[in-house]
Amino acid sequence: MSAPERSPLDRFSFNHATAKFWDQREAVEACARTGSGIGLWREPVQEMGLEASAKLVKDAGVTVTSLCRGGFFTDPTRAAIEENKKAIDEAAVLGAPTLVLVSGGIPEDGTIDTAREGVEEALAELAPYAGERGVTLAIEPLHPMFASDRCVVATIGEALDLAAPHPAEQVGVVVDTYHIWWDPQVWQGIARAAAEGRIASFQLADWITPLPAGVLTGRGQLGDGCIDLKRYQETVDATGFDGPIEVELFNDALWARPGAEVFEETRAAFRRVLA
Amino acid sequence: MSAPERSPLDRFSFNHATAKFWDQREAVEACARTGSGIGLWREPVQEMGLEASAKLVKDAGVTVTSLCRGGFFTDPTRAAIEENKKAIDEAAVLGAPTLVLVSGGIPEDGTIDTAREGVEEALAELAPYAGERGVTLAIEPLHPMFASDRCVVATIGEALDLAAPHPAEQVGVVVDTYHIWWDPQVWQGIARAAAEGRIASFQLADWITPLPAGVLTGRGQLGDGCIDLKRYQETVDATGFDGPIEVELFNDALWARPGAEVFEETRAAFRRVLA
User: Fold this and answer.
1) pLDDT in tens for each of the 275 residues of chain B?
2) Which residues form the Xylose isomerase-like TIM barrel domain (chains A, B) (predicted)?
């Protein structure tokens, strides 16, 4: 375990969902100009075309830090598996080291326990497939308010238990402050994730109060909420992690604004909270 | 550990907040008619008067299963301590074995960690006070979506850690399905709570999807959501618990309807899901 080599300020990656309706090309160009990485999303990639998107980031010299999003295993399983294989292939073409997985919610005829078993089974099939293509699957625990409809995986500990049967280069976890900050075991969870070599993605977003009406799109700009983001960065870095730090904000107010403006504001907020 | 002596169907207790605007006297009379217990709230008790409320339940022969609500320790501390002592005194007069505690959120100048320390300190002062009056403080973990503004205690495990320094007759925990159902460690948490003799209150409410706009008042009627309530009752009972099973639903739609109707519907739902 060595001290991080790169300052956190040099490790900013802009997740495209933060400016969801911003043209992918413009987003990549902004990242190129500022030495930022980018987290890509499958839908805009498909819109531009997979090969064209891969060429775009390569020509711009922009590092793709993750591809969002695989998962939703608790939908009819066979179709979900095929869709995830496709997403893994796309990540490989784009040079994304990581495919972020949101597990899916509780199926009509199931319980949270059967849904979790479904995630285990899907991972067993997908992990070797991802490994062969040099892609790490990153299980993302979502905040428990999404446990019924989006993600039955609710804590880092649970994500690590799901990852455990697989090699770390095949299955890791996402450390996203927005989803885990409330967890009384969060620091132990991060320490365990690092010890097991499974921090596949590190993402920042803040928690604002009160929650907006649409809880899916209420993630706060860095510094606007109650999460001690600097402590998270220091804790994660202290484990020896010096990978990209992505900012992913689902926020209606941000989405309504010009992407370039949101990019600059987000980058400035990142530099402010991690200074 | 003995098998439960009373059928769950005979252990229904109606938390007054389920029909928040229903007259306390009518609620108590409905409970008397049906052999139900009642969970009282401080505000309606104060409105009727503490002694008059105590006489009401005593004359009606209705068991008070809990008093809601103490806590909010992360408000300015000294005032919160005094207010909680008053609530303990009220519980003793009403014959409520349990005062439910919601810890409070994150103070303006604090973090979730300092807030949790504040809860520890408040408990240290209040636990002996409660013990002298025969009242058990019941720490209620709330769903993590309330962690910033209402309750920094988010899991049974955390509530048990907070209770641990105190005798079980002084500090226990609330097992409320609505708040804990998503927790991957929930079954271990219930087993531990039982082993430590700390199940001070058992409450049912269901989780419905999508969450309503006001997340505070979106608890589902029993059977309307995704929680396997029967499994919770069986699991809790299997530990030897045979205390009251309270139904507490914060739900705008229920609150808009006549209390007597809500009472009957809730009692019927209780009998249906636990049959």
Assistant:
1) 455 478 999 999 999 999 999 999 999 999 999 999 999 999 999 999 999 999 999 999 999 999 999 999 987 778 999 999 999 999 999 999 999 999 999 998 899 999 999 999 999 999 999 999 999 999 999 999 999 999 999 999 999 999 999 999 999 999 999 999 999 999 999 999 999 999 999 999 999 999 887 889 989 999 999 999 999 999 999 999 999 999 999 999 999 999 999 999 999 999 999 99
2) 36-266
How far does A145 lie from chain B, in Å, by closest CA? 6
For the record, the structure tokens of B198 come out as: 């700390």
**What distance in Å separates the CA atoms of residue B141 and residue A105, rounded to the nearest whole number?**
23
In this complex, is the C-beta atom of A112 within 8 Å of any C-beta atom belonging to chain B?
yes
Q: Give me A145's structure tokens.
A: 């308010």
Return the structure tokens found at A154.
């609710």
Q: Could you give the angle at which helices A186-195 and A156-163 cross, rounded to 10 degrees?
A: 30
Which domains are assigned to chain B? 8-273 (3.20.20.150)
Nearest Cα residue to B191 out of B235, B134, B130: B235
The ipTM assigned to this model is 0.95
Residue B132 vs residues B94, B128, B163, B169: alpha-carbon distances, Å? 15, 6, 17, 10
Using the beta-carbon criterion (under 8 Å), do A145 and B145 form an inter-chain contact? yes
Chain B contacts of A229, Cβ < 8 Å?
none
Q: Does B229 touch chain A (CB under 8 A)?
A: no
Spatial CB neighbours of B270, under 8 Å, sequence gap ≥ 6: B9, B12, B204, B222, B245, B247
